[in-house]
Amino acid sequence: MEIVESSPKRTLIVGATTNPDRYAFLVAQQFASRGMEFIPIGIKKGVVFGKEILDLKAKPPLKDIHTITLYLGPANQSEWMDYLIGLKPKRIIFNPGTENPEFFRKAKEAGIEVLPACNLVMLSTGQF
Predict the structure, then answer these.
(1) What is the pLDDT of residue 127?
(2) pLDDT, tens digit, for every residue of 33-65?
(3) Which of 14, 16, 112, 128 could make a disulfide contact with 42, Cβ separation 3.0–4.6 Å?
(4) 67 and 14 in contact (C-beta within 8 Å)?
(5) pTM exceeds 0.85 for this model
(6) Nearest 10 degrees: CA dihedral of 73, 44, 85, 31?
(7) Over 50: is that where the pLDDT of 1 sits?
(8) Pairwise pLDDT comparison (4 vs 107), residue with the higher score
(9) What is the secondary structure of 66-109 as a DSSP string?
(10) What is the SS3 string spanning 22-77?
(11) Strands 51-52, 47-48: pairing kind
């Protein structure tokens, strides 16, 4: 399995999709239009803004993930929680509807900053 490496400020979009009506797609669009590095990962195949959506089920080994922006609801997070924490990001952004007290606790215990926030708002207000 290939290890994907690059700059230390890159963001993993969890729940990436090719559906233009979904927030995960819109945030990928914002990253692409701003020239920001991102990696899309999800359970559905496809390509967003020139990047292939990695298969979340395969739990690919990734390095140097600065931020994880989460677009999976709490009911769909338990299978991926330990994998995502194991990527050792600096922070996890829990977008609206993804908040999960157990995930918050585990991430904080691992020394990861937890932000219940909207990534799109953060980008539009310069807080990202």
Answers:
(1) 86
(2) 999 999 999 999 999 999 999 999 999 999 999
(3) 16
(4) no
(5) yes
(6) -90
(7) no
(8) 107
(9) EEEEE-S-GGGTTTTHHHHHHT--SEEEE-TT---HHHHHHHHH
(10) CHHHHHHHHHHHCCCCEEEEECCCCEECCEECEEHHHCCCECCEEEEEECCCHHHC
(11) antiparallel
